[in-house]
Amino acid sequence: MPERMKPYSLSAFLFLMVVHLGVQALTGERGLLSGTERNQRLADRQSDLANLTEQRTDLEVRVRHLRSGSLSRDLLEERARAVLGLSDPRDYVIRVSTPVATASGSARS
């Protein structure tokens, strides 16, 4: 029986390869049917990029105001209060406690 199947083994292998590649072309990561996923990921990444660009612009403005040539007193006062933990008597202060990580939780890998 193996002698009769020998001429067909190459054809069977090629057929299986074509089937495998066809399935991947349709349903794989870059396949024809996964276009909506790619579009969704692209939209998510574009919104992340917009958020990061906005944050960077805000940080650049803050840095520009903290330079000695163009020091903004309001921004300097805000940063000093945040760093030193001080507040104006007219301000409302709401303290939020954050849970402290336990030593056993940080030792786990």
The ordered string of helix (H) and strand (E) elements is: HHHH
Work out the helix count.
4
State the shape: elongated
> What's the helical proportion of residues?
55-70%
Which band does the percent of strand residues land in? under 5%
- Quick one: biggest sheet? none
- Cα(first) to Cα(last) distance is 55 Å
Given helix and strand content, the structural type is mainly alpha
Average pLDDT taken over every residue = 81
Low-confidence stretches: none
Number of beta strands: 0
Describe it for me?
This protein has a domain at 36-96. The chain starts with a helix and ends with a helix. The chain has 109 residues and is mainly alpha-helical. 69% of the residues lie in helices and 0% in strands. The longest helix is centred in the middle third of the chain and has 32 residues, at 35-66.
Characterize this entry briefly:
This protein has helices at residues 2-27, 35-66, 73-84, 103-107.
Layout of helices and strands:
Layout: H1 2-27, H2 35-66, H3 73-84, H4 103-107
Q: What labels describe this entry?
A:
single chain; 109 residues; mainly alpha; 4 helices; 69% helix
